[in-house]
Amino acid sequence: MSEELNGTVLLERPVEQVEQPVPVAVQTVSQPKAAVGTVVHTPIEVKPKPVYGFFKRAFDIVVSLICLTVGLPVYLIIALAIVIDDPGNPFFVQDRVGKNGKVFKMIKFRSMKKDAEQIKVNLAEQNEYVSIHFKMENDPRVTKVGKFLRKTSLDETPQVLNLLTGERDIIETTKKNVGFSRVVAA
Length: 186
Known about the structure:
By secondary structure, the protein is an alpha+beta fold. The protein is built from 4 helices and 7 strands; from the N terminus they run ββββαββαααβ.
């Protein structure tokens, strides 16, 4: 896996695979449980390719416009179903790390109850992961419509707006939530 930070591609490898010590800067957040596994990011210089970048961006715009045009009726039905199932904003917006380490607002269809963060506080002891991530087998915060959206990955479709604005690309690595700990090679 890799991610890009300030024009530098960072490859993730388990610490055991690092041939020589790498200076590491660690940004920590408070963690209810200890994180499992350590990952070191090794920087690799990437030369910009302007022609490739132009065609990649043009492709992203064309694909996003087609998806928005063709998918609009489906998006409206999904939004209506979410509001009927659990009244409130049908969208979930979260800060993510994008190109060159820039933070952007990722848009998804809301698959949980609107007060999911308050409910999570009461469910903290039932977290099935020993990490900063929260996961439950039958999470009571997920709505009926949300279960279907997650199963079919339709909750991800509004990200086509992020694609249109250039905040993300069709082909890119998964971006981490801003609140998670990050280990970056110095």
